[in-house]
Amino acid sequence: MSNEIPIGSPVRTQAIINRYFMRAKKSLGQNFLVDLTAIKGIVEAADIQPDDQVIEIGPGIGSLTEQLLMAGAKVFAYEVDDNLPEILQNELPKEVNGQPIAERFELMMKDILQADFAADLGDFFDLTKPIKVVANLPYYITTPIIFFLNKAKLKFVSLTLMMQKEVAERLCAKPGTKAYGPLTIAVQTQMQVEIALSVKSSSFIPRPQVDSSVVVLTPLVDKPAIGDAEHFNWVVKMCFAQRRKTLNNNLKPLLPVATERAQVFAELGLEPKVRPEQLSIQQFAQLAQRIPVRKS
Fold this sequence. Notes:
The chain is an alpha/beta fold and 296 residues long. It contains 12 helices and 11 strands.
């Protein structure tokens, strides 16, 4: 099979699968993207420019990696499947835009959740310059990865991530909708969220049971004033503990005295029967300020 055919094309992907006797590992959430329009859409959504520094999570057989490199990016990839280094070495182009692949691409066999970015990237990236994250994420680990990256002390300018459509809808949900909840709030206190494109399940081998979306997360310049983040997130989580119940009922473990709850509702201008999904982030911040901090 000619390497002039992109890795992400169905025919090239199938040829690679056959050549290496591959089977997608369900335990790693592997689904190979075979839609070149979607792959190039991810690169476009990430706004990849020449010499951009990009962390890729789970490069797989290199479908997205190849297009990132062709767009001029310098790519550092994290992978956990021991069968893939050989495939990436053989299938990725030997040089990109006149440069040897070794100068543009580095693979580290490590779980991204165990990453020490300063140590891992220091010899390959200039850590004083911005870094982008681009990935087709395994569905089962999407949320932990987002929170891990958000807490990392690294200069991320954007996270462009393919994920389950339902999770994407939760990330960008608005107050008053069913998708709005603790995940929405935790992410939107830190990042601007935008769904860049939708990808049908038919774009993957093997075909997953759900569709996907590509989400672009950009760190907020002006973040909401939420005070103690740990306390805030705990209060939000408790407010959604029993989603079908009113906020008043969910607050009983936090404010057992009915008159105290009534006073808080009055101060915030909330109706007693309001449901947690109707509150804005600012209202949750005001509420958290009135809830006693848990004793350690």
